[in-house]
Specification:
homodimer, 69 residues, mainly alpha, 434 Repressor (Amino-terminal Domain), two-stranded antiparallel ribbon, 2 strands, globular, DNA-binding
Chain lengths: 69, 69
DNA sequence: ATTATTTGTCAAGTAAACTTTACATTTTAG
DNA sequence: CTAAAATGTAAAGTTTACTTGACAAATAAT
């Protein structure tokens, strides 16, 4: 699964810290999501998508590897 | 957060076990999701939505309480 | 009414999301 | 060039999604 978080974030010139604050998680969480260390929870995914005004499916790109959990 | 899993599942006359098999989790997981014991992961949410041919946002209804994680 | 199917509960365990703190590296600005 | 801001790394801890197994209750079918 890939995400467009970094892409959308830079487009809007928002720092990781600002995004973290906006969706109420730590900066570490954003870093880890952007660097593929782990996957967002459903609610966090929703909050990030909402923040950028897109759908979850538009922000998070699922692929064949996502057959597993 | 509410889900329409039960609703869509009954509409299609699919058992919890069949859905569980289809999205590759245990029956317990489906029961717990339907009964609000916990929230699906992003990938599971995607697989369930895909299975029913709808978007995540259509299957999982976020509300104000989802400000927290 | 009795059996089979479906749904639910309980509890203990594993895995992964998220936090916290502290520090190191990279990028941007003056 | 140098300082500040932004990004990254590491590690230990908490919480929660998900599993497994065994058994109980409700619904449907014969």
């Amino acid at each position: 699964m890939k995400t467009r978080i970094t892409e959308y974030r830079k487009e809007r010139k928002i720092t990781q810290e600002e995004l973290a604050d906006a969706v109420n998680v730590t900066r570490q969480t954003i870093i880890s999501l952007e660097n593929g260390k782990y996957k967002a929870s459903l609610v966090l995914a929703h909050k990030i998508a909402q923040f950028f005004g897109v759908t979850i499916e538009e922000m998070f790109l699922f692929d064949r590897e996502d057959e597993n959990l």
